[in-house]
């Protein structure tokens, strides 16, 4: 295996899978990389851990999503580093090294699709594939200053992809500009083409921005001004999302606790959504991989080792309630947004943490992050993380969320809106 000594440490293994198509296809002459969670015929899918790679055979077929990109004219140039077993949003891997954040070398790149995001951010490839279960495309996209798209749950096949937790697993992708982001989506989304539609509203989740360490005006003003210029100010609305969710997702009462009610800068209902997500994720992860972990006792890095250990202790208690929360949140947000409404939230609570930050220091940041990430994760809605340049020399982003199945609408929207956002940043 060729490990990366340069190239920002993004690659696990380099190889070339040539396109199998005519020159007039949409991704002709472009290059891409894939997270080491996708099967490629003749290669072991490593899942971020050497013990996994050692105990699994080479893949006998290639993931359909990778084949679709090859069929559209793109060339795959290798597999990228990821967090072990996809169980982190940091991007640090003690076995294979941590890919270097191209925006801030002393900060984590974000995970678990760390290498895929770094490869795009460092301009090593045109676009890349990752997966997003709890935030593993959105977080590294934000930290590396690029676009990242988490599609609606279930619209892209996950065959040929190692499962983490099926209720949340999605195939996502990264690009440096919204046109290419949209082109890649056009190839791999299993959805009919739609004409660009005018958004009915942009709902700013005001309380969600209180979870951010970035000042509200800094986080929102360029996007709000771009929306006002492009669509008019009447489409902008505000919502206290936590109150709306608390009222409309009754099953959350099983996950509300004194502990998460009393924390500073916490939205109790969204913290409860996050708790439901993490419980169901742990339960499904255990069902998928518990037997292998028990048999092999793999060497796992700090943070991940504890998370995996906790997951193995998960029982079936409250799992049915988690599924109820998923259904109720989906329906509640569908009612809030309608067909063409858009929710605006921070992608993450702030800039990427420093490398090797103490786990206890990260806990508040992680708690806030999962309150934000679980909105699309639990509802199954699509979300795009949009880079907004740098703030205090660190990357800044914002996210837009749309209803389940509105992926192409959201991609068209970002493609149309982003030139105005760039204008506002330059002004």
Automatic annotation (TrEMBL):
GO terms for molecular function: hydrolase activity, acting on carbon-nitrogen (but not peptide) bonds, in linear amides. Residues 23-177 form the Amidase domain. InterPro entries: Amidase_CS, Amidase_dom, AS_sf. It comes from the Eukaryota. Gene3D superfamilies: Amidase signature (AS) domain. Signal peptide: none annotated. Pfam families: Amidase (PF01425). Belongs to the amidase family. This is Amidase.
């Amino acid at each position: 295996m060729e490990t990366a000594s340069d190239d920002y440490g993004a690659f696990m293994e380099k190889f070339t899978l040539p396109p199998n198509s005519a020159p007039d296809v949409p991704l002709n002459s472009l290059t891409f990389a894939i997270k080491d969670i996708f099967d490629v015929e003749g290669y072991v899918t490593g899942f971020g851990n050497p013990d996994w790679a050692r105990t699994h055979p080479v893949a006998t077929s290639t993931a359909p999503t990778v084949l679709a990109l090859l069929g559209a004219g793109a060339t795959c140039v290798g597999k990228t580093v990821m967090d072990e077993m996809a169980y982190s949003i940091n991007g640090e891997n003690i076995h294979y090294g941590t890919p270097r954040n191209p925006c801030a070398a002393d900060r984590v790149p974000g995970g678990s699709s760390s290498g895929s995001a770094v490869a795009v951010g460092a301009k090593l490839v045109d676009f890349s594939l990752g997966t997003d279960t709890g935030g593993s495309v959105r977080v590294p996209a934000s930290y590396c200053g690029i676009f990242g798209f988490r599609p609606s749950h279930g619209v892209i096949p996950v065959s040929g992809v190692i499962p983490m937790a099926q209720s949340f697993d999605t195939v996502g992708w990264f690009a440096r500009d919204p046109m290419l982001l949209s082109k890649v989506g056009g190839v791999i989304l299993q959805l009919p083409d739609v004409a660009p539609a005018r958004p009915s509203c942009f709902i700013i989740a005001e309380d969600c921005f209180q979870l951010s360490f970035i000042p509200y005006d800094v986080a929102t003003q360029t996007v709000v001004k771009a929306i006002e210029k492009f669509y008019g100010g009447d489409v902008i609305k505000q919502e206290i999302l936590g109150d709306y969710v608390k009222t409309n997702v009754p099953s959350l009462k099983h996950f509300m606790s004194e502990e998460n009610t009393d924390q500073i800068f916490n939205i109790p209902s969204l913290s409860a959504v996050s708790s439901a997500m993490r419980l169901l994720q742990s339960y499904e992860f255990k069902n998928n991989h518990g037997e292998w972990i028990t048999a092999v006792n793999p060497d796992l890095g700090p943070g991940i080792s504890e998370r995996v250990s906790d997951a193995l202790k998960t029982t079936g208690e409250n799992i049915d309630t988690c599924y109820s929360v998923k259904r109720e949140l989906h329906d509640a947000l569908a009612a809030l947004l309608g067909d063409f409404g858009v929710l605006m939230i921070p992608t993450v609570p702030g800039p990427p943490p420093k490398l090797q930050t103490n786990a206890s220091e990260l806990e508040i940041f992680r708690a806030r992050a999962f309150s934000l990430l679980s909105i699309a994760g639990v509802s199954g809605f699509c979300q795009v993380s949009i880079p907004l340049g740098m703030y205090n020399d660190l990357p800044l982003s914002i996210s837009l969320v749309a209803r389940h199945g509105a992926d192409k609408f959201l991609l068209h929207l970002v493609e149309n809106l982003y030139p105005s956002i760039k204008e506002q940043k330059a002004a």
